[in-house]
Amino acid sequence: MPELPEVETTRRGLAPLLEGETVTGVVVRQPRLRWPVPGDLAACLQGQTITAVGRRAKYLLVATPVGTLILHLGMSGSLRVLPGGGTQQPPGAHDHVDILLGNGACLRYTDPRRFGSLHWTAEPPEHHWLLARLGPEPFAPGFSGDTLYRQSRGRRTSIKAFIMESRVVVGVGNIYASESLFRAGIHPARAAGRVGRDRYRRLAEAVREVLGEAIAAGGTTLRDFTASDGRPGYFAQTLNVYGRTGEPCPRCGGPIRQQRIAQRSTWYCPGCQR
DNA sequence: CCGACAACCTGTGAGC
DNA sequence: TGCTCACAGGTTGTCG
Predict the structure, then answer these.
(1) Catalytic residue (choose from A11, A55, A58, A108)
(2) How far is residue A132's CA from residue A130's CA, in Å, rounded to a whole number?
(3) Of the candidates A110, A85, A115, A87, which has an alpha carbon nearest to the alpha carbon of residue A97?
(4) Are A216 and A10 in contact (CB under 8 A)?
(5) What is the pTM of this model?
(6) pLDDT tens figures, A140-178
(7) How far, CA to CA in Å, does A176 sit from each of A106, A147, A158, A164, A219?
(8) How far is the CA of A68 from the C1' of C10 (A)?
(9) CA A194, CA A257: separation in Å to the nearest integer?
(10) Dist CA A221 CA A206 (whole Å)
(11) What pLDDT, in 10s, does the model give residues A78-100?
């Protein structure tokens, strides 16, 4: 999926196209996503005017006066706005949901692997069970090296698994975990509880830098991500270690190593990261 | 409570 | 060319 920068890129692309529009219809072709699409989604959204498109962690929040559509793109999801109610582009096998808008456009949700989800809530979205236990946003004051240090005391899990925990900080997925740890000079397999305060301060800064630069570049293009306007992101060109097995480390020139850590492929420089 | 792992899906690319 | 296998951006739930 889209990691946080891709979701934020999608949000920025969608917001001006959706805000102020009224939902005139909802077509659900495939309700079996990560969680079933609510059967009454059409009834909830019908006739509502979209007031804002927000984001919490990797969830997109489409707000209306009476409730919020909570959308997750999973590993392979994407959203596009199509003109002409989408009739000019007949839905493909993985185009699971269309949300029709008053101006004749169509918000189309596509997700081959179906790890994404759509929820509706009439409550403030932060109260929803999916969002209630999330940790701080990386750019919020609640996220810092000091909080990382405190939370990690006694933790024996790898620091890579630790910074990918959504209760610790949201938005650090598999790509940016490797990239952040490289910038901070920390070995991804090191136990989280055995990293000192100064190194956590560097890590917090690295997370903000990496995510911030990726957002500025419009996200990372890998296999199947494109921004909502169809243009690719350009951050992939600036990845230091992710997917670069055997290539020279940009800092020391030694070969980048790949290792399975926290059940996911992980890349690091054994010379620069301790 | 903690940590490891399975599970949910389809598509793609490598290797034979 | 075609088959099989490993792996892919996420997250919850379960088990020991």
Answers:
(1) A58
(2) 6
(3) A110
(4) no
(5) 0.95
(6) 999 999 999 999 999 999 999 999 999 999 999 999 999
(7) 32, 19, 15, 9, 11
(8) 22
(9) 22
(10) 20
(11) 999 998 878 788 999 999 999 99
